[in-house]
């Protein structure tokens, strides 16, 4: 007797979505890896396989090496201050003596819910060397004697974009940390106080260990998001001046859509993808470890 084949009805519903995801995400990813081993430009008639020499050429390009350094400073500076500022604000808002916490929380969340391009334009006016409010206040307080060209200075352009990125993302950190702080059991804090621990010791021995998994997750997500961030650098400085604020995403954009060197841009994209994958794996391991501990 022939066995009847029973089709899983769940698979029938999922298959179309899997096919769409494969076409939209998997195919471009595979093609980018393939393109990274070929020379390809707008002016070439076809693909010319060059193998790993494309990557050798990439790492010999001082602009790419500079973009690696800029990406490190951009990611490190953004994530550190996003987390520290968000953590500090969350701890302050979580204190019982703070009044109107709901109203304060709404105002603090404005940068995060505001469309990025609107926030960028507001900051561009604030950074304006002649009419910007930042230079006006700094000169009023006697901290500077002449106007600073924040977005066109080689030493201030990347710092200026980091400040905007911190302003944009720290409210999200604050929201997630505050939610985690509110889940700390009160009886653990009371037990620590009974044992003679003061407020600071209770915070570091009871609260911090309880919210540590949330902190790890937030940091990893911030790293992944910041590595792939593009809008602020593109809209504020365009990678300038003299490539001083050109992070890897800007490097890929310029080589692909301005220089039309698709092969080199694909190779740079693969490098950025692999760096992101490393942090994504770390995030997955931390998440699984946190679930195992629970």
UniProtKB/TrEMBL annotation:
For this protein, the record's Gene3D superfamilies field holds: MetI-like
Q: How does it sit in the membrane?
A: Multi-pass membrane protein
InterPro entries assigned to the protein according to its UniProt record, in alphabetical order: MetI-like, MetI-like_sf
Q: Where, if anywhere, are coiled coils annotated?
A: none
Indicate yes or no for the key word Nucleus. no
Q: Please name the Pfam families in this protein's record.
A: BPD_transp_1 (PF00528)
Q: Which organism is it from?
A: Pullulanibacillus camelliae
Q: Which domain of life is it from?
A: Bacteria
The name on file for this protein is Sugar ABC transporter permease
What keywords are assigned to this protein?
Cell membrane, Membrane, Transmembrane, Transmembrane helix, Transport
| Compartment list | Cell membrane
Q: What is the lineage of its organism?
A: Bacteria, Bacillati, Bacillota, Bacilli, Bacillales
The portions of this protein that span the membrane are: 12-34, 72-94, 106-127, 147-167, 218-242, 262-286
Q: What region holds the ABC transmembrane type-1 domain?
A: 68-283
Question: What is any one of the record's Gene Ontology cellular component terms?
Answer: plasma membrane
Q: Which Gene Ontology BP annotations are present?
A: transmembrane transport
Annotated family: Belongs to the binding-protein-dependent transport system permease family.
